[in-house]
Amino acid sequence: xxxxxxxxxxxxxxxxxxxxxxxxxxxxxxxxxxxxxxxxxxxxxxxxxxxxxxxxxxxxxxxxxxxxxxxxxxxxx
Length: 77
Description:
Blueprint: H1 3-7, H2 26-49, H3 54-76
């Protein structure tokens, strides 16, 4: 082992996930992500299977708002 290898240290960002402290919005963000995924899938299915796209578009837009909310909470941690 060379001197450089013995002095090398992993950066803080590379720590294992379990060692990181969870932020205060962790559970709420996971719920928002699940609602986003379900809403997006349901919206796309409705959009492709119906002639009136209004309801499907509203569901997809609501899902996007949920995702934006989750992103804002992630930035606030």
